[in-house]
Amino acid sequence: MYTTKSYYVYILHCSDGTYYTGVTNNLERRFNEHSLRRNIGSYTYNRRPVKLVFQVEFYDVEKAIAYEKKIKKWSAIKKLALINGDFDSLPGLAKKKNFKKSERGK
């Protein structure tokens, strides 16, 4: 019998307002690890409770990993647009490559 393996890219909203992006082949297990484990070195350890706010399923592990890496580079505002399904605004929220520190206050 042929079965298709699923991979999930997910975003957690942490108690400090930050977002954690990850990839897994078992979303329920991984969420429980973030919520219950006592791994002091993990990003979510001091940011619990966490809430699952986004997930997307892939059948190709390489595509899932590539998407996770892409999202990890995004700003919190762009991640929030993705979470809210505001796909039309995503291109406009891309980081400007020539952004200068002096323009920050403008």
Short descriptors:
106 residues; 3-stranded antiparallel sheet; disordered C terminus; alpha+beta; GIY-YIG endonuclease; flat
Written description of the protein model:
The chain is α+β, with helices and mostly antiparallel strands. The protein has three helices and three strands, in the order ββαβαα. The chain has a single domain, classed as GIY-YIG endonuclease (3-Layer(aba) Sandwich), CATH 3.40.1440. 28% of the residues lie in helices and 22% in strands. Strands 2-1-3 form a three-stranded antiparallel sheet, sandwiched between helices. The longest helix has 12 residues, at 61-72. The protein is flat, with a radius of gyration of 16 Å. The chain starts with 6 loop residues before the first strand and ends in a 23-residue tail after the last helix.
